[in-house]
């Protein structure tokens, strides 16, 4: 998304939510000065929080990462969710987190343990900030004290993930895991095969939206639209979940 586009999108989402949902804006990979500028703009537009990655292309040290989040925390009044995954190749060490969680606006970690760290390590902070699972282990995260997880389907068919969450909340962790895995497994396996032809995180979600009857357009280049064969396979997968797929979807694509 272009720099001049995202503020309009954020404003539209905030207006559409009309205080019925909490809107969090993602700010990624930028230097500290630009991150602060965009964070202030997002705050003014109505975001209640930010998901922020380290400035990975600056090759930051642990001290640089700490300064990045510290300066950002001092500059704004809304919450910050710290986000880094294995694919970013920019690990945040546990000792850095120990210092970082003391910053006023740091409210959570989108957690994916890096090489050399255990999944359990982040949960020493669970009484200070929230831990959001980013490893397809929502039941385990909840059981250890986390309060959220990342998924591929909540905006596609909310009843599924609401059910997963309800099972976790009631302490039925095995059932929550089984239900989550029953959808996440086939969806992720399909996405892995599909990505060999064209990548992009949005392709899966856009395909799911299309077969559910709510097309939202294609990803921007270089990501390619799903072809008809991919959409047909994805539709069969979703039917297998028992979800209410659309009777018809865009059949003009070529396989």
So how many helices? Answer: 9
Strand content: 5-15%
CATH classification class of the largest domain = Alpha Beta
**Widest beta sheet: strand line-up:** 1-2-3-4-5
The Cα radius of gyration reads 19 Å
CATH superfamily placement of the largest domain: Aldolase class I
Structural class: alpha/beta
Task: Point out poorly predicted stretches.
Answer: 251-255
Order of helices and strands: HEHEHEHEEHHHHH
Q: How helix-rich are the residues, as a percent range?
A: 40-55%
**How many domains make up the coordinates?**
2
Assign the CATH topology of the largest domain.
Answer: TIM Barrel
How can the largest sheet be summarized?
5 strands, parallel
Distance between the termini: 28 Å
Number of strands: 5
What is the average per-residue confidence, as pLDDT, rounded to a whole number? 93
Level-2 CATH architecture of the largest domain: Alpha-Beta Barrel
Apparent shape: globular
Walk me through this protein's architecture.
This protein has 255 residues and is an alpha/beta fold. It folds into two domains: 150 residues, Aldolase class I (TIM Barrel, Alpha-Beta Barrel), CATH 3.20.20.70; 87 residues, no CATH class. The chain contains nine helices and five strands, in the order H-E-H-E-H-E-H-E-E-H-H-H-H-H. Helix 2 runs parallel beside helix 3. The C terminus is likely disordered.
What is the secondary structure topology, with strand pairs?
Blueprint: H1 6-17, E1 24-27, H2 32-45, E2 49-52, H3 62-75, E3 79-83, H4 94-100, E4 106-111, E5 130-133, H5 138-144, H6 158-169, H7 173-194, H8 202-211, H9 228-241
Parallel strand pairs: 1-2, 2-3, 3-4, 4-5
Helix pairs in contact: 2-3, 3-4, 5-6, 5-7, 6-7, 7-9, 8-9
């Amino acid at each position: 998304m272009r720099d001049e586009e995202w503020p309009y999108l954020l404003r539209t989402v905030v207006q559409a939510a009309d205080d019925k949902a909490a809107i969090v804006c993602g700010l990624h990979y930028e230097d500290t000065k630009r991150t602060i500028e965009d964070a202030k703009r997002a705050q003014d537009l109505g975001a209640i929080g930010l998901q922020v990655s380290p400035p990975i292309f600056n090759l930051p040290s642990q001290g640089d990462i700490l300064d990045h989040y510290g300066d950002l925390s001092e500059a704004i009044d809304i919450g910050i969710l710290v986000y880094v995954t294995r694919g970013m190749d920019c690990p945040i060490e546990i000792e850095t987190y120990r210092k970082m969680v003391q910053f006023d606006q740091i409210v959570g970690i989108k957690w994916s343990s890096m090489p050399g760290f255990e999944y359990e390590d982040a949960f020493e902070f669970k009484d200070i900030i929230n831990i959001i699972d980013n490893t397809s282990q929502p039941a385990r995260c909840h059981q250890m004290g986390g309060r959220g997880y990342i998924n591929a389907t909540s905006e596609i068919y909310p009843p599924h993930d609401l059910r997963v969450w309800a099972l976790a909340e009631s302490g039925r962790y095995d059932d929550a895991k089984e239900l989550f895995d029953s959808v996440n497994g086939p969806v992720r396996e399909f996405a892995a095969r599909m990505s060999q032809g064209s990548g992009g995180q949005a392709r899966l979600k856009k395909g799911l939206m299309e077969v559910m009857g709510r097309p939202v357009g294609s990803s921007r280049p270089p990501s390619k639209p799903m072809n008809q064969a991919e959409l047909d396979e994805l539709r069969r997968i979703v039917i297998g979940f028992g979800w209410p797929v659309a009777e018809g979807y865009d059949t003009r694509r070529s396989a």
